[in-house]
Amino acid sequence: MLLITCPNCGPRDETEFHYGGQAHVPYPEDPHALSDAEWSRYLFYRENPKGLFAERWVHNGGCRKWFNAIRDTVSYEFKTIYTGESPLEAGAKGDSQ
Prior knowledge:
Organism: Arthrobacter horti
Protein name: Sarcosine oxidase subunit delta
Structural class: alpha+beta
Helix content: 10-25%
Pfam families: SoxD
Oligomer: single chain
CATH class of the domain at 43-97: Alpha Beta
Low-confidence stretches: 90-97
């Protein structure tokens, strides 16, 4: 069982959280100008790397707030948890494991 550190509530059981996909995916500037293929690429195509990956998570069993995390997809270890736009802004606000 994983322990995930919510930036608002502290360490909690993984069952209290919901995965929200890849973090930092920019919304298209003019979504109405996109073709169907471009729109589907924005909606459905995401990276699937082996190693460190920026993700969105929501603490739906607690504060219900969204946050970002850098997680190792091989070991499942959360390296950094942050609420800003960049892990560089976050520093080491809440490492968990």
